[in-house]
Amino acid sequence: QQSDLNSFLWTIKRDPPSYFFGTIHVPYTRVWDFVPENSKKAFHQSHIVYFELDLTDPYTISALTSCQLLPQGKNLQDVLPHDIYRRLKQHLEYVKLMMPSWMTPDQQGKELYADYLFNAIAGNWERKRPVWVMLMVNSLTEVDIKSRGVPVLDLYLAQEAERLRKPTGAVEKVEEQCHPLNGLNFSQV
């Protein structure tokens, strides 16, 4: 029942009202049917929409990619214990081998070839900081691969806002997300 769902929607009572909506970074198709109507209505009634980050801005994507890299001249092999690095490399070889069987017919029909997709997700992995490699490995599962090409909820809402010609913005800068993660030490990662 829609009325029984927790919407993660907060309202600031002012004129006009403002809303806060808690989203998660998963393909929107996994959660869209569970987003209550009051949240969808608030989105459509809003004149301006702000997101955590502006995922439609090429600078944001470029800065996110750059912040994941180790300092110049360093590779993951230089900073990880040999055994962990070897196991990681073996796991990525396994994933690359399995990816064609994980892809949906629709993905294959869109020419989302397994090698292309693997390189899009794991390309340059040896230059990434351990925390970002950990997040990457967590997304290299059969379920996640099958949903590639479907935008996460935040991006879907940003694309909808653009389609509806709603002005958009971001409440955080890439650096505000990147620096705390890059500041984790190896034991925390």
TrEMBL record:
Does the UniProt entry include the keyword Hydrolase?
Answer: yes
- GO MF, any single term: metal ion binding
Q: Where in the cell is it found?
A: Cell membrane; Membrane
The cofactor named in the record is: Mn(2+); Co(2+)
Which GO annotations describe the biological process of this protein? negative regulation of Wnt signaling pathway; proteolysis; Wnt signaling pathway
The keyword Secreted belongs to this UniProt entry's keyword annotation? no
Q: What is its EC number?
A: 3.4.-.-
UniProt remark on cofactor binding: Divalent metal cations. Mn(2+) or Co(2+).
Q: What does this protein do?
A: Metalloprotease that acts as a negative regulator of the Wnt signaling pathway by mediating the cleavage of the N-terminal residues of a subset of Wnt proteins. Following cleavage, Wnt proteins become oxidized and form large disulfide-bond oligomers, leading to their inactivation.
| Name of the protein | Metalloprotease TIKI
* Phylogenetic classification of the source organism: Eukaryota, Metazoa, Chordata, Craniata, Vertebrata
Give the encoding gene's name: Trabd2a
